[in-house]
Amino acid sequence: MPFPDETALTNVTIALYQSNWAVEGRDFAHQLRRLVPDAAAIEHIGSTSIPGMRAKDCLDMMVVVDDISSTSAGSALEAAGFRRRPEPWNVEEPAEGRLWPKMVFAPRVGARAVNIHVRPVDAPTTRRALLFRDFLSADTFHRDTWARFKTAAAAVTTELSSYGAIKDPAWLLLMEVAEQWAATTNWNPSYLSD
Asked: Which UniProt keywords apply (predicted)?
């Protein structure tokens, strides 16, 4: 959930695509690389990373680490002023029959809206975040359909957790289509291609 100063995240508002999101994501990735130089990968993820996608005006960044239990990413981000989100769903996430560790950080007080997800390289959720981005970047029909769905969900409720509850089942269905696309195209996460 948002910290009290994160007023931009209090109510869900879906914005038209903004070309500056790609630039901001790239700049933020460079900043994170300086903070966590040993990361396996640093990626701009989520809807703001997808050209043409409507989204909440909040960047999602992902720091991929070899071992989340021994990484210095958390302490480096906290030392730089980012705040660790304490909610259970920001500490672990379910996938493939088990819970996978993660950390999520909020922006510095007063800074641009961002969520920094720290995930282990071997977690299915790491792969899925990149698959979501790459699939919807490649498939404009599904991108536009997802954007319409998100906009409709935000019209039903602007409360963040209720909006997420509406979106989650549809996201699972979308990811089944994305997995078919991945199999057909031999897609692999970008950090495996570097």
From this structure: Transferase
